[in-house]
Write a structure and sequence with these properties.
Its main location: membrane. This protein has 8 helices and 23 strands. The chain is α+β, with helices and mostly antiparallel strands. Strand 1 and strand 2 form a beta hairpin. The chain starts with a helix and ends with a strand. It folds into 3 domains: 57 residues, no CATH class; 245 residues, Jelly Rolls (Sandwich); 119 residues, OmpA-like domain (60s Ribosomal Protein L30, Chain: A, 2-Layer Sandwich). Helix 1 crosses helix 2 and helix 6 crosses helix 7. Strands 4, 6, 7, 9, 15, 16, 17 and 19 form an 8-stranded antiparallel beta sheet that branches. Strands 5, 8, 10, 11, 12, 13, 14 and 18 form an 8-stranded antiparallel beta sheet that branches. Strands 20-23-21-22 form a 4-stranded mixed beta sheet, covered by helices on one side.
């Protein structure tokens, strides 16, 4: 009921009360106030009931390629290959990753972007105990593994990570919130010991001979986050759950997760924010050889829950750019990432750019050539131009954001002409997409 309806009702009720011969003006005013409040309450209840009916019937309004369910914007899955890429505001992302100090490991040993896998199925070589499958999403590029509730997923990696390693992946969460708690999401690493890294026994309880996991328990206004590590089934480290209010702002948007292990030290970042830095978070003995993801159960139906992962990357060793540039005269990194087919540097590259800038700042007299390389996807000419533009973008970032002298940097591009790995595999293409820094003076 609008304001004019209330005014008309007020006049009508006043005449009606006088006609009834209500004893006094005070009585009339009191009775009128009660009636007015009841009318407003009834009008509000009708609006709420109508809204509940619309939600209950699943009538979703399309907004920018998404649908609104409950109080959370939900991205629709689609089987088609054509997608519209969302280009985030770069200023916002640079600010979000301003304190990011993650630098990926020196050597990539595993990569999975699911580009070569079939939608509607589990990625090749992966193992799971429920119906987790690959899907495409409106306005979000790439293939994504949608985790089923009450499931554990094991990657196809079987290589040992060594004492120093990094793991990265993209996470997207979306929920049709109805007042209940959504399922909690866990990600972590394990050492499988004497069994295969994809053995079925690890699906029942992914601990192996040692493990750790981070748990995100989503809430309507954020999430509770906790970290635990185990030596077999004995708990080695435990953190008390802490509230992360910003996570709710990222529902329906990809966020970047990064993990770094240095012997016992364990560090974890979420969209540039360091969640944990634990000096003795990793148990000794044995080496990790598996990354796992799990989703718990909830009162929600499967179609009301969307938890997706993509772009999994594992590297071993620690970056040694300083030594390589000083002794060998050049070093290469796959840690500077770009939007697909573009020269736009992704925000998760900030840690690497800072690291490189600190090396260059130590020897300001040095002249460095920044060389861009691409994989072999696309035609030669386009990749050549793209590699040149990416090298220029790196130079621009180093000079404008980190104060490196422009005169000390030159740029060039090699396109796909100098691969260091097989372009027929995801891992190989990931290694080929790199930026080299070559000392020329």
């Amino acid at each position: 009921m609008n304001a004019f309806g209330i005014i008309r009702l007020s006049l009508g009720m006043s005449i009606y009360l006088v006609g009834l011969g209500v004893g006094s003006s005070a009585q009339a005013q009191s009775l009128f106030k009660k009636i007015k409040n009841r009318v407003e309450q009834t009008a509000t209840e009708k609006v709420l009931n109508k809204a509940d009916k619309v939600v209950g019937e699943g009538v979703d309004k399309a907004i920018d390629g998404t649908s609104v369910k409950g109080n959370t914007k939900v991205l629709a899955e689609k089987p088609e290959a054509s997608l519209t890429q969302v280009t985030p505001d770069s200023t916002t992302f640079i600010k979000a990753f301003a304190k990011y100090d993650f630098v990926p490991g020196d050597s990539i040993i595993y990569a999975a972007d699911f580009a070569d896998d079939v939608n509607g199925e589990l990625p090749s070589g992966w193992n799971s105990n429920a119906g987790s499958v690959l899907v495409k999403l409106n306005q979000i590029p790439g293939n994504w593994l949608r985790l089923a509730q009450r499931s554990v997923c094991l990657s196809s990696n079987d290589q040992l990570l060594g004492p120093d390693f990094t793991v990265e992946f993209d996470l997207l969460m979306q929920f049709d919130l109805k007042g209940w708690l959504p399922p909690s999401f866990r990600f972590g690493l394990l050492a499988s010991g004497n069994v295969s890294s994809t053995d079925n026994t690890l699906l029942n309880d992914p601990k192996g001979v040692k493990s750790f996991y981070t748990e995100l328990a989503p809430l309507a206004d954020g999430a509770n986050i906790a970290l635990e590590s185990y030596q077999a089934y004995t708990r080695y480290f435990h953190s008390m759950p802490k509230k992360h209010t910003e996570l709710a702002q990222w529902y329906g948007k990809p966020v970047h997760i990064a993990i770094q292990g240095q012997k016992e030290r364990l560090r974890i970042w979420l969209n540039g924010e360091k969640l944990y830095d634990v000096p003795k978070g990793i148990p000794g003995e044995n080496e990790f050889n598996q990354v796992f993801f799990s989703l718990s159960s909830s009162p929600y139906k499967d179609e009301q829950v969307g938890v997706y992962i993509s772009n999994v990357k594992i590297a071993k060793g620690m970056p040694d750019g300083r030594t390589k540039l000083q002794k060998e005269g050049k070093f290469s990194t796959t840690g500077i990432l770009f939007s697909t087919g573009q020269a736009t540097i992704l925000p998760e590259s900030e840690g690497v750019l800072k690291f490189i800038a600190s090396i260059l700042a130590e020897d300001q007299a040095a002249k460095i050539q920044v060389v861009g390389h691409t994989d072999a996807v696309g035609d030669d000419k386009s990749n050549q131009i793209l590699s040149e533009r990416r090298a220029e973008a790196v130079k621009r970032a180093l000079t404008t954001r980190y104060g490196i002298a422009e005169m000390s940097l030159q740029t060039s591009g090699k396109g796909e002409s100098e691969p260091v790995a097989d372009n027929q595999t995801v891992k190989g293409r990931t290694r080929n997409r790199r930026v080299e820094f070559i000392r020329i003076q």
